[in-house]
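anyone else get weird line breaks when pasting these?? whatever heres mine. first is seq + tokens for prot A
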Amino acid sequence: MGIDIDQKHKKQKHKHLGETKTRDPYRRLLIQLYKFLYKKTGSKFNKTVLRRLAYTKVNRVAVSLSRIYKATEKAKEGDISVVVANVVNDERLFDFPARTIAAIQFSETARQRIEKAGGRCLTFDQLALERPTGSGCLLLKGSRFRSETFSHFRGIRGKHAKPYEGKRNLRRNTERKRGRRKSRGGVWNH
């Protein structure tokens, strides 16, 4: 038995483009649609949308209206803001201009606010019909490292990681430290 030298040093790809474990039928159909569009058009925009549709929930961070507003202040009139995540309202933003936004999901207040300003909320299948190559689209993405969950991870924050508090501290085991119980070094009375 010989060794196939051509295949010997090739790195194996762990994940194919658009491969996901989601059970959401709508997202699965969107992945099929954008896989087809990427094959037919070869557009880098479609490839990026396809990759982001396959993201896990942790990596699909919601984007607020204020972030969309800041990113699209200098955008052209007909541009569409594309967010491959949820869009949520931001009450700190007083007035939101008319914008066309495509996203996986909109919160009720965000949808009302966009439509009240004269903008449009698009789904990804509507976006595929309007702009199949992604021309005139601005891709936006939320920062996953700003989420509250990541503030607890020592690998990212180092010694400045935020400690977990709340219900954990109500348990007896969290109070078994020095100075709390006599069995752990005594209780000091000040």
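and prot B, same format (seq, then tokens)
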Amino acid sequence: WQYYPNKKGLVSGIVFCGYGLGTFFFNFITTALVNPHNLKPTIHIQEGATVVHYFERKVYKNVPYMLTALSIAFFFLGMAGALLLDTPNNVIQKQYQQPLIHDQPKNNKDQALNNQHVEVSTAVESKVFWHLFVMGTLSSSVGFFTANVYKSYGFLKINDDHILTAIGAVAAIFNGLSRIFWGQFLDRFLSLIHI
């Protein structure tokens, strides 16, 4: 935000686009680690009115290895991202620094958020924090639910792990690119609305 203070929505959209598009790659990576030979679910158990499909040991024994490999990959990606962090020089930072709250703060907690350094306890007690927390929780819970169950649901109609992985990857592309759109939308249409 410090480099592009007037394009905060777009910058956020690009950052979150990385999360969405990351799913595209990790969909294929996890499937390659767990089920490289595209084995079909062979264990079928009747649970109520539906039949649930499970993979045999050849597939599910690879899950701990996949979790370890992903943990290592996420660690190195996180370290690379941390090394790439940079702030603009002090002249640019002071010239474009804008307060988090645009109109007059309604209480002392919101007033404290206008300062550059904010204590965690002050932030947690502010109205802005809870507004953003509820928005983030509600908007991400649907995506997390869908990402976790799309293969379980898909196996009811499509009995091919690689095809379901490709479908999830296409969904990840739309997920990532839509975040850029919504970021630009926020910059353009909601710049008139103040928190």
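btw re prot B: The beta strands are 43-47, 50-54. The CA atoms of residues 36 and 173 lie 22 Å apart.
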